[in-house]
Amino acid sequence: MARRGDMLLLACLVLGLLAARVAAVHWTMAHAPESVFVFDSRDYENTALALLETGRFAVSPDQPATPQIRRTPGYPAFIFEVYKYFGSNRLALLDIQAALSVLTVIFVFHLGLYRWGRGGAWAAALIFALDPVSFIYSGMILSETLFTLLLVAALVGLSGAIDRSGPKMCALSGGAMLAFATLTRPIAYFLVFPIAVWMAFTRGRAAFKLIPLMLLPYAALVGGWQYYNYTRTCRPVLSTIGELNMFDYRAAGVVALRDGISIQEARARLNETVPPHLSPAERDRWMGREGTRIVLEHPALALRTQVVGLFKMLFGPADAATREFLYGRFGNFGSVGWMFKTAASPETLGWLAAHPAELARMAYVQLYGLLVYVLLVAALWVIWRRPEARSPALDWLLWGAILYFVVISAGPEANPRFRVPIMPVMAVVAGVAGLLPSLPGGWKKGKK
Is the pTM of this model over 0.70? Predict the structure, then answer.
């Protein structure tokens, strides 16, 4: 259990982190306001503005009759609420988003306390507070920050359903938070199924009561949105963004590797095959089917795109200027060997030497990432060597969440942005760093 002193120190950490992130947002909006608004930001903000001006969940205020089915409602609704009270004020939006990003630290501390104890909780909270990728994307108009907060809140609720008091309420709240997370980013759509299996194995007979309680809010909210889309488009989909990604990234990546061309050229070739005169919903459906066909016809190449995407997600540069340089000179997709050769090329090293700020940011991002990955391996080592340090139910939940997002996110479209949702979970696991000094015998195997 956390002490009063811990809560005061945690509050100081959160307030200090909030001040730093708000200051960074204000500096960015004053000196580089265009950097907070990227390609996906346009869809989110336009849909929020459509809600404000027309009352419809449409692609933009100028197209109120065209339903928005590529984006789920969570983040546009969040923007809508902010703009409703503060006007179309991006600074206010990012200030509030900064506050949400630091709230996640509290949930990380809570999970770390439950998993490793007081030392592990502080290690987890400090590790996550120093995460540069979460910091960068909290200052951009993207759904990652809100999604991450909801996802970690869901994991906190679900962890309470294992063996603490009030497991029914924990299962219900965990299911609701998971539903809200899924409505913010559809990538979490399938996570409910492995969680249900996890609950069945960890709770035994009690799972027959807890799983329905978890599924009830999830089915009502997520299923309700799918029904709403069905009434508008005759398609009971949560989102069609996956169909677009299957065609423009997964299939294009396969074609790029097969034909030895850039992914941009492969995408252009594929888009020439799209039948004309399709509605937006029909176009997305056709692209999903055609992309799936191409991927299934080349399973070995599809697997290679997954491996390449994994490296892009885990080791890619998070700094926008560095990415723009690399993509502008070399493209943004190739084999793993090509990626490392590109990163270590004389041209890249020369550009970094001429831009010390970008070099410093990239070095910090890469070193931080490597440290976290080393601590994840250390956690596995401790769990294997020290039986008294094991917590099987919680370990399966945390590691399962990490693996789910790593596997489902890897692909040609992957980049460091995709790391944001799993950084809090990895920080909790990496909280083993706070446990190591207290292990009698250090790394040696404990007594059975």
Answer: yes
